[in-house]
Design brief:
With 175 residues, this protein is an alpha+beta fold. The protein is built from 4 helices and 9 strands; from the N terminus they run E-H-H-E-E-E-H-E-H-E-E-E-E. Strands 1, 2, 3, 4, 5, 6, 7, 8 and 9 form a 9-stranded mixed sheet that branches. The chain is globular and about 45 Å long. The relative contact order is 0.18.
């Protein structure tokens, strides 16, 4: 990230900037209801902002999840957004790397994402079929379901991911 930009956990006073960020970054998607619900969760949600001189220029959420058949800790990365004028400058990458580091510190074994393989592949994410998402994905989204190991042990739990209430919306999964 450029000099002066930092990544930190979000605070209550970042909410209005976060709420302005998503419509700017995703004008054709309404991610605000999901983001608001995730930020209202009492636990299990890591919310990070990238800021420049106090201005929020990027945001990402990582949610603690589980699996139906394993006690291995897993997490779900997303949504991730960067102001359009600040994209392609390493801000999203800084948010992802910081989030992965934090998940490793929290003893999470794997982090999953439903996103662009070309983008997330830069960080080491690979297509994953060992854990299935909570809802069936459209065929064209299958390669977008990816994971990365963030622990010393390459735990590969199997089964279906269990997610907290905000993620239990089939439309988020293309259904």
């Amino acid at each position: 990230m450029a000099d002066g930009n930092t990544v930190r956990e979000s605070r209550a006073d970042d909410l209005s900037a976060i709420e302005a960020l998503y419509p700017a970054a995703f004008p054709d998607e309404d991610l605000l209801p999901l983001v608001r619900e995730l930020l209202a969760e009492p636990s299990g949600v890591t919310s990070l902002v990238a800021n420049d001189g106090g201005a929020v220029i990027g945001h990402c959420v990582i949610t603690a999840c589980g699996t139906e058949s394993s006690a291995v800790k897993v997490a779900l990365l997303g949504p991730l957004a960067v102001l359009p004028a600040r994209q392609a400058r390493g801000i999203g990458g800084a948010l992802v790397r910081d989030g992965l580091r934090r998940m490793s510190e929290q003893k999470v074994a794997r982090v999953f994402v439903l996103g662009d393989p070309a983008y997330y592949g830069r960080f080491g994410f690979h297509a994953d079929q060992s854990i299935t998402p909570p809802y069936p994905l459209p065929e064209e989204w299958r390669t977008a379901w990816q994971s990365i190991s963030v622990s010393q042990e390459d735990a590969r739990p199997e089964g279906r991911m269990t997610v907290p209430r905000p993620w239990r919306q089939p439309a988020l999964w293309g259904a």
